[in-house]
Amino acid sequence: MLDGATGATGLQVTVNRRRKVVRLAYVGPFTASRQGAHWYAAHHALPRLLSRAANVTVHAYMYDPDEGEEVIAYGNGRRVGGERVVYEDVELPGRPEDVDEAAFKYMQERWPVGHLAYVFGLTRKELLRLPLAVPSRVLALDGSEQDSASALEALLPGAGVPHFPPDAH
What we know:
Elements: E1 10-16, E2 21-27, H1 33-42, H2 45-54, E3 58-64, E4 68-75, E5 78-86, H3 101-110, H4 112-120, H5 124-128, E6 136-140, H6 145-155
Antiparallel strand pairs: 1-2, 1-6, 3-4, 4-5
């Protein structure tokens, strides 16, 4: 409710076990395609609350392949960092036609999503493909806590289910 995620039917949980990265994303009509990227850019209650409840740094990222990307970090319920790149504002070294694909990919690795991927020990491509990765489960947001707990245990064996303060619902 704090995120304004009215209409969300679930929370997709995707895990990269090799790098111990967990991705959370709402499932709903407002999160589809470019519209979803812009929705996530403005709604950060889940990462803020999760950073406080789990006592970890949580990164929220927005990626619109046509417009730009942004990464915001939360720690103990507060924003502790972030960076944004608007693609049309990027200054290329020299003339655009002189920048080859390798040089451009090198630049992208230094942009927010590329840097976040580096922090996680992933490539930029791997981070951006997390929504398609397995294992992945959609947790129902209708209050069926037992099903959600079982799904989380299957994805994250031994991790337990995080408990949020009562005001976080």
